[in-house]
Amino acid sequence: IKKIIRSKHKKKINKNPKILFYTQADKIKDKKIGKIGNLIDEVKKQNIAEIYILSYEPMEKNSYLNLLKQPNMIYEYITKEILIKTRIAANELNNKWRAISEHNKSDLLKIEEKSLYPYIKQELDFLFSKEFLKLIFLYHEAHKELLKQENIRLVCSIGAGSFYHKTLFSAAINQKVKTLVSQHCMCIIYTEL
């Protein structure tokens, strides 16, 4: 599905500085964006910068038709090189995790004489799985590519809880792009590097 989305969305890159607004695909209705629409309107009205709206679709939604309607998706920025690079990095980190003995993992997570490891082993194994690491690395690298290609100067989002947001903000900080996190349209985190 993501390959089809990549082929349907043709990048029209323009190098003017932009503000990226990050939102869930289902929050866009009739070209209006819930929760951050007023902020976008104000930026347009004051002619502060060009607007770049990037939407994401949570994996649990699987709404293929909705994805095709979106103006910008992260999949447009995934290249063959990024796919190879992230697969290699995920395999390397997964192999390093698996190379640590169970005893050492238990020792690393000791508080006084009690280890937390037995209680969080499954979660850690998931977080260090090849599949999860590849997904995280893939989104991070694709976000870095988007930020560079689109000349993004500020990233705005109404939340930072999912891995979609975290990989975008990590890439932004890595690229020295300012970020703004708003919860219910109240500024809660702002970074200026």
State the oligomer: single chain
> Total helix count?
8
What series of H and E elements makes up the topology? HEEEHEHHHEEHHEHEE
Cα shape: elongated
Share in β-strands = 15-25%
Structural class: alpha/beta
- The average pLDDT is 82
Please describe the structure with a list of short key phrases separated by commas or semicolons.
single chain; 193 residues; alpha/beta; 5-stranded mixed beta sheet; 8 helices; 9 strands; 21% strand
What secondary-structure arrangement, pairings included, does this model have?
Layout: H1 2-8, E1 18-24, E2 28-29, E3 32-33, H2 37-45, E4 50-56, H3 64-68, H4 80-99, H5 102-108, E5 110-111, E6 114-115, H6 117-127, H7 130-150, E7 152-157, H8 163-174, E8 178-183, E9 186-191
Parallel strand pairs: 1-4, 1-7, 7-8
Antiparallel strand pairs: 2-3, 5-6, 8-9
Helix pairs in contact: 4-7, 7-8
